[in-house]
Sequence to fold (141 residues):
Amino acid sequence: MGRMVILLSMLLMGAMTQSAGAQETYAGAPVSTLVRVSYPDSSARFQPAPDVAEILADAKDASVVYVSGRTSTTRPSAKDEALAFARAAAARKYLVDRGVSPLKIMVNYASATDFVADNTTPAGKLENQRVDIELVYVPMY
Fold:
């Protein structure tokens, strides 16, 4: 019981060295990486840029993956909600097809919200028509 309390205390302090012979020391909080993939108007075809695809190639090692589909519309509608969902679902399928466990993927979608750019310009709308993918890596103690 005493060893369990010490181990738990070490985990709660956020730092622990592995047992003798281990090569690594883990410490600190989870690390996350966020990537964005923009979509042309009315499209749900997931096509990450080469640099994003390279980052996503390691997604199977993430502890959890958050996928958020968005649109650039200013008023929510059933059609735009379906488009936001289709974008998130396409990104999820891409990840699962590349070995990410579907149990690790959390999907969220919404239209007419969460703008990251000025939605009154064509360039801003393109940035807002997107999927955000956050890869969260939790240190293993």
